[in-house]
Amino acid sequence: MATNVQLLKDALRKEGLLYTPQRQIIWDEICKTDDHRDAEEIYFKIKQGGHKVSRATVYRTIDVLVKNNLVRKLELGDGRNRYENKLDSSHHDHIVCIQCGRIDEFMDENIEKLQDEIAKKYQFKIVRHIHQLFGLCRDCN
Ligand SMILES: [Zn+2]
Ligand SMILES: [Zn+2]
After folding, report:
1. Within this chain, do residues 59 and 30 fall inside the same structural domain, yes or no?
2. Which of 43, 51, 2 is nearest to 22 (CA)?
């Protein structure tokens, strides 16, 4: 079943791109899980599924989805951006294993509150924040 067709259509229209079954397949694949995957992983998963979608289309479509706020891009400093859909994922931060690449999500009220207090102190209105912790997971430690 196609996920959120209209969201994709709107994003593509804004970018002056056509809605195609290939682009829907890419969007579906990203919506299928809450995983944090890079573009290659997403591309191979689609290929594994027996779909004929070019790598260039996957990369380009992901860019459009990020630009239109449907997909979150995570920059972890290792040169491989990870992507996750933003459909029903409320705000969360990430803790990353530098050994195996495992990524967990967390959300801590205290950290959120603290950030607000810091912003207030500096008379900033927070638009977004990126908070990432890096370390070794239980398996790798
Ligand atoms: Zn690990
Ligand atoms: Zn996440």
Report:
1. yes
2. 51
Q: Which region, left, alpha or beta, applies to residue 103 given φ > 0 means left and ψ of -120 to 50 means alpha?
A: beta
pLDDT of the residue at 1: 47
Is 18 in the same domain as 80?
Answer: yes
Expressed in angstroms and rounded, the spacing between residue 76 Cα and the centre of ligand 1 is: 15
Ligand 1 centroid distance, CA of 98 (Å): 7
Find the angle CA(23)-CA(79)-CA(55) to the nearest 5 degrees. Answer: 25
What's the confidence (pLDDT) of residue 57? 96
72 and 12, same structural domain?
Answer: yes
45: phi then psi, degrees, rounded to nearest 5: -60, -40
CA of 94 to the centre of ligand 2 (A): 6
Taking the centre of ligand 2 as the mean of its atom positions, its distance from the CA of residue 19, in whole angstroms, is 27
Q: Note the pLDDT of residue 129.
A: 86
Ligand closest in space to the Cα of 104: 2
Nearest ligand, CA 140: 1
Res 3: pLDDT: 63
Ligand nearest to the CA of 97: 1
Kindly list the averaged pLDDT for each block of 10 residues, start to end, along the chain of length 141.
82 95 96 94 96 96 96 91 87 92 93 92 90 95 92
Give the number of domains in the chain.
2
Q: Could you list the residue range(s) of the whole structural domain that residue 32 is in?
A: 5-85
In this structure, is residue 141 part of a structural domain? no
